[in-house]
Design a protein that fits this description.
The complex is a heterodimer of chains A (299) and B (433). Chain A has 299 residues and is mainly α. In chain A, 73% of the residues lie in helices and 1% in strands. Chain A has a single domain, classed as MetI-like fold (Orthogonal Bundle). In chain A, helix 3 packs antiparallel against helix 4 and helix 4 crosses helix 7. The relative contact order of chain A is 0.13. By secondary structure, chain B is of the alpha/beta class. Chain B is built from 18 helices and twelve strands. In chain B, helix 2 links the parallel strand 1 and strand 2. In chain B, helix 9 crosses helix 10, helix 10 packs across helix 17 and helix 17 runs antiparallel to helix 18. The longest helix of chain B is centred in the N-terminal third of the chain and has 45 residues. Classes of the chains: A mainly alpha (299), B alpha/beta (433). Chains A and B meet through helix 1 of A and helix 1, helix 3 and helix 17 of B.
């Protein structure tokens, strides 16, 4: 009997793995192998068009990254970007979610309306916003009604990145609103009823029931948001002709990696090293967030 | 038990199907290479004298009109060489990235467009093969090509591509605005400032200035400077002449306030600002002519050579060559295509379309240009132009160059400090390589 059980278990495992083979192969070839290969390449000076000239550098690429002013500027930019976008986006998404679950009329209309920017291609949105931010564009036109002179938003080092931030908050808030909406619907109605019976005000219910019970959702949203903002690429790429300009003010880590790998710098090894550094940055921030927001709340 | 076996079998089928899928995908990737010998055998048995080969041609397609004229030319080629088949594979975006991927995979097309800016990179990394023996075999007269174009595709005394066409920069001016102000197009730097001053009124600036090295570099030469020494081992980005040129170019915006950037004028690029009538002058190339025809057909414009600097004239020439790739199995036949597409006959057909200027001197004398002073002004520039080219591995320091110009024009940064940074980056790149 025991033997029979064991042999059945072995068989189960074998069957499972046979079923997993296709997935593992695809993941292995297109995800795991490139990841490890990138890690390996980060120790070399490697030109994809002339691989025969590659040289082993040890930690040379990493040392260079810490001296590279463009990389430092890119890290500064994404951290600045994340520190503004993530909190704003989360608060906004949460408020929108409260709004669309409060049972007002046209609730579904608003849900769809807030979600549309998220499903719209970032290429389309970037181009629309280029028009909005243009010197003769919509934003300056509206500001003109209040007597504010037109400003060249995308060509000013102080306003180019904030302009992209504003755009991105608007785009992705809807996405996190949907996640918060799901989280809000998951909170059992009984808690609120009990609290009401005890005489809790709306704010007290929000503070002591909704927010603590939404903690896992908040963790998820903040992690995704931080990862997404640190990997910012398409909007600055599309809105600055792939340059991260003016004068690196919208340069992001991903954009700089792309330039080094494919943008004519022919420095795949250096790009790989920068990718590893970005990975470490995201890893550390994710661990901190887990520590901070990760405790489960039970009632 | 039987059910279990069935499950395992089912899983195996799924796995096998996936594997088979991978297999066929790989074959698909190698297809172009395998296709050629197969086709050779096929047609070889039909026509006994010569084997039929297929030549692949790739390039970017800037407009449907360009694709169309190329197809017409290729039809002529097929008639002339019935045993060479040509397949044209245009790339619509990110051409240089596609080419890099093809080069790594060993599947480059036989004949490809090589931009003069990227030529040093692609030649030094072995993407294009030297054409000298085929040039001799076909008896191509290189002296008919404009020297400044050909120079962009020559390295260590060998020729790696034949230029298909070109454009220089010219000073485009709005005829109506000039007539109203009673002005003549400027011939020198000083005149440029004066004229621009007179034309700057209200929303209109005298000239639109792009923070772009592709427009700025000729000014360095006009000031008597240069970018590189003869063998391009040293650069002079921060020479006193370069600083003087930067002070003049940037000064139009910052000091004289007679110019602005395209974006500040609410336009995508300089040509756009000019077409919208927000600037009376623009420094652009031949591509402006079809653009203005389409966007502002009523705008009356003229083109003159770039104004003369304190140490003479200069210009930048933008050109693209047909090159034969390292992966070509039939380089001799591929060169026949290159030769045909750059021949006098083909270029005479192409000029009618008006997309670019002909790279052959003989074609530039075509009566087509006789009554076109705008194109003549651009042709005149090629005699003293520099190819729009730096060195191999230029992208990092050229990006620094672009940033320096932005910093000077948008933030009023000091030219010398900014150009020092470009020079430092150049030296750093050269040390790394």
């Amino acid at each position: 009997m025991l033997r029979r059980l064991r042999s059945q278990k072995v068989q189960d495992i074998v069957t499972a793995y046979v079923f997993l083979v296709p997935t593992l192969m695809i993941l292995g070839i297109f995800v795991f192998a490139p990841v490890f290969y990138a890690f390996y390449l980060s120790f070399f000076d490697y030109d994809i068009l002339a691989p025969q000239n590659s040289r082993f550098l040890g930690f040379g690429n990493y040392l260079e990254a810490f001296r590279d002013p463009v990389f430092k500027k890119a890290v500064k930019n994404v951290i600045y970007y994340a520190s503004v976008v993530v909190p704003t986006q989360m608060v906004l998404a949460f408020l929108l979610a409260l709004g669309v679950t409060s049972g007002t009329r046209f609730q579904n209309f608003f849900r769809v309306a807030y979600f549309i920017p998220t499903v719209t291609s970032s290429v389309v949105i970037s181009h629309i916003f280029l028009y909005i931010y243009s010197t003769t564009g919509l934003l300056n036109h509206i500001l003109g009604w209040f007597g504010i002179p037109p400003h060249n938003w995308m060509e000013d080092v102080r306003t180019a990145l904030p302009a992209i931030m504003a755009m991105n908050i608007w785009t992705t808030a809807g996405q996190y609103m949907v996640i918060y909406t799901a989280g809000l619907n998951d909170i059992p109605e009984e808690y609120y009823e009990a609290a009401k019976v005890d005489g809790a005000t709306y704010w007290q219910r929000l503070r002591y029931i909704t927010l603590p019970l939404l903690r896992p959702v908040t963790l998820f949203v903040s992690m995704m948001s931080v990862i997404g903002t640190l990997q910012l690429f398409d909007q600055p790429y599309l809105m600055t002709n792939g340059q991260g300009g003016p004068v690196d003010s919208t340069m992001t880590v991903m954009l700089y990696i792309y330039k080094n790998a494919f943008g004519g710098y022919f420095r795949m090894g250096y790009a790989s090293a920068l990718s590893v550094l970005l990975f470490l940055l995201i890893l550390v921030l994710s661990i901190i967030q887990r520590k901070w927001l990760g405790q489960e709340v039970q009632y | 038990m039987r059910r279990k076996l069935a499950a395992v079998f089912g899983a195996l089928v799924v796995a096998a199907a996936t594997l088979a899928g991978c297999g066929s995908k790989q074959e698909g990737g190698q297809e172009p290479a395998q296709q050629q010998p197969a086709q050779q055998q096929q047609t070889g048995s039909q026509s006994s004298s010569q084997e039929k080969v297929t030549i692949r041609l790739t390039g970017w397609a800037s407009s449907p009109a360009e694709t169309e004229i190329l197809e017409t030319l290729l039809e002529g080629f097929r008639q002339k060489y019935p045993n060479i088949e040509v397949s044209y594979e245009p790339v619509n975006a990110d051409y240089d990235k596609k080419l890099q991927a093809d080069a790594v995979a060993g599947t480059m097309a036989d004949v490809f467009y090589m931009d003069v800016l990227w030529a040093p990179d692609w030649i030094s990394k072995g993407l294009a093969i030297p054409l000298d023996e085929y040039i001799q075999a076909e008896g191509v007269d290189l002296s008919d090509f404009e020297e400044s174009l050909l120079r962009g595709f020559q390295m260590n005394g060998k020729t790696y591509g034949l230029p298909k066409g070109y454009s220089t920069l010219g000073l485009f001016y709005n005829v109506e605005m000039f007539e109203q102000a009673g002005l003549q197009p400027p011939k020198t730097w000083d005149e440029l400032v004066e004229v621009a001053k007179a034309l700057t009124k209200g929303d209109v600036k005298g000239i639109v200035i792009s923070p772009d090295h592709a427009r700025f570099v000729p000014f360095i030469y006009m000031a008597g400077g240069k970018l590189f020494n003869e063998d391009k081992t040293e650069a002079y980005f921060n020479s006193p002449e370069a600083v003087q040129a930067a002070e003049f170019y940037v000064g139009l915006v910052t000091k004289h306030k007679v110019a602005d950037t395209p974006k500040a004028l609410g336009a995508e690029w300089a040509g756009d600002a000019f077409a919208k009538g927000r600037a009376a002058m623009a420094i652009e190339g031949h591509w402006m002519i079809p653009f203005l025809q389409e966007k502002a057909p009523d705008l009356k414009y003229g083109v003159v050579e770039l104004p003369e600097g304190p140490k003479g004239r200069s210009n930048f020439v933008f050109t693209v060559a047909y090159a034969v790739s390292k992966d070509s199995k039939h380089p001799a036949e591929a060169f026949k295509l290159v030769n045909y597409l750059t021949s006098e006959e083909a270029q005479r057909q192409q000029i009618q379309l008006g997309l670019e200027l002909p790279s052959r001197k003989s074609v530039a004398k075509d009566p087509f240009f006789a009554d076109k002073p705008d194109r003549q002004a651009l042709i005149a520039g090629v005699a003293y132009a520099q190819p729009f080219q730096y060195t191999a591995n230029q992208a990092p320091y050229v990006d620094e160059f672009a940033k320096a110009l932005e910093n000077m024009i948008l933030n009023g940064a000091d030219p010398k400090t900014e150009l020092d940074k470009v020079q430092a980056k150049f030296e750093e790149v050269m040390k790394q390589r």
